[in-house]
């Protein structure tokens, strides 16, 4: 997890409207149709080394499914607060599924309270099996919600595995490098709602505080409202304008650690001063809970000694959530105590 020193330099919350040349748009068609995976890997290598973010087009996910999932998200957040609070994430223990109210998770807690509400689902497990695995809490008052959101989660999972194969190729690793370490990967499908802010906005309350993502890969669908900001290498916040037909992809801490900083888990935040409600769908995927992340040999040299100790995906992610979830801090004083079944080396 990067510390937020660069972000602290900037207290102006209006992002500069610069050309987004440095965060490229990658066409996934040659990867998905098999015609030129090498070309896609080459573009991904540049994007992740320089921006940590990219837009992707021709991703193959049905527009209808995306639109329907946005509609389900809106219907959920329109429910009365009492109804949403029945599904509160604190009911789910360490499985971390359910509803998170405004200010219920703060991603830059020393500076910012997050003016957002979210709803998290993940792979369906009948009982709580440990961190990130357990039953979902579905809003039964909304017929069809469960089916759509679960289908969307599955579509994101399938796409993320293809993108991870391209990330592996981009690192001169075999395309299936990540697969043995992702037998039951941690994944979270999050629905988000950002109420608009008006008047003087300062960093104490914004949509989502500056943060890097915790896991391997994030796939974000944003509506047309805008508000995502990504930091460029000069420490300037750049507007991440929604581009119709694309997802925003970024890598999280685990890939930065795996690549010993060759690839960047970049800082980003959301400030919604549009005057409109903003909705987004963020899918996060990691390795298995007990998969160990150690810097790759190929990313270590005399000039670039190993910068990160080995850590499991589960321990890293749970520790990050402990910092951002006030409800978890009340319930847990330690992170993951032990790694079940011994580590899988990633
Ligand atoms: O909603 C967005 O645009 C970004 C969300 C995000 O950064 C996150 O959930 O980690
Ligand atoms: Fe994020």
Automatic annotation (TrEMBL):
For this UniProt record, the keywords arranged alphabetically read as follows: Iron, Metal-binding, Oxidoreductase
Instruction: Using the record's annotation, list all stretches that form the Fe2OG dioxygenase domain.
Output: 184-287
Q: Which organism is it from?
A: Mesorhizobium australafricanum
**Gene3D superfamilies linked to this entry:** B-lactam Antibiotic, Isopenicillin N Synthase, Chain (2.60.120.330)
**Family membership:** Belongs to the iron/ascorbate-dependent oxidoreductase family.
**Which PANTHER family does the record associate with it?**
FI07970P-RELATED (PTHR10209:SF881), OXIDOREDUCTASE, 2OG-FE II OXYGENASE FAMILY PROTEIN (PTHR10209)
> Which SUPFAM superfamilies does the protein's record reference?
Clavaminate synthase-like (SSF51197)
Pfam families in alphabetical order: 2OG-FeII_Oxy (PF03171), DIOX_N (PF14226)
UniProt protein name: 2-oxoglutarate and iron-dependent oxygenase domain-containing protein
């Amino acid at each position: 997890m990067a510390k937020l020193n660069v972000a602290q330099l900037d207290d102006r919350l209006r992002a500069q409207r610069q050309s987004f040349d440095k965060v490229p748009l990658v066409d996934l068609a040659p990867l998905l149709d098999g015609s030129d995976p090498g070309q896609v890997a080459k573009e991904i290598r540049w994007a992740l080394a320089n921006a940590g973010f990219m837009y992707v087009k021709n991703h193959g996910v049905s527009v209808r499914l995306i639109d329907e999932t946005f509609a389900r998200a809106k219907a959920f957040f329109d429910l009365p607060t009492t109804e949403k609070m029945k599904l509160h994430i604190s009911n789910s223990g360490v499985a971390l599924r359910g509803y998170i109210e405004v200010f219920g998770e703060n991603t830059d807690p020393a500076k910012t309270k997050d003016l957002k509400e979210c709803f998290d689902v993940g792979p369906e497990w009948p009982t709580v099996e440990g961190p990130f695995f357990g039953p979902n809490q579905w809003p039964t008052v909304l017929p069809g919600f469960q089916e759509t959101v679960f289908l969307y989660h599955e579509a994101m999972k399938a796409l993320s595995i293809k993108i991870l194969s391209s990330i592996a190729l981009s690192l001169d690793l075999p395309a299936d490098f990540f697969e043995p370490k992702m037998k039951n990967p941690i994944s979270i499908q999050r629905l988000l709602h950002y109420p608009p802010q008006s008047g003087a906005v300062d960093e104490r309350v914004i949509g989502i505080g500056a943060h890097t993502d915790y896991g391997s890969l994030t796939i974000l669908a944003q509506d047309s409202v805008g508000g995502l900001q990504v930091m460029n290498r000069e420490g300037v916040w750049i507007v991440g304008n929604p581009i119709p037909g694309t997802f925003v992809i970024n890598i999280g801490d685990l890939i930065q650690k795996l690549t010993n900083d060759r690839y960047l888990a970049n800082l980003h935040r959301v400030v919604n001063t549009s005057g409109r409600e903003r909705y987004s769908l963020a899918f996060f995927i990691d390795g298995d809970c007990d998969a160990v992340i150690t810097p790759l040999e190929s990313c270590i040299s005399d000039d670039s000694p190993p910068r990160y100790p080995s850590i499991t995906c589960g321990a890293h992610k749970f520790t990050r959530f402990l910092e951002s979830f006030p409800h978890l801090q009340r319930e847990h004083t330690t992170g993951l105590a032990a790694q079940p079944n011994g580590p899988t080396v990633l």
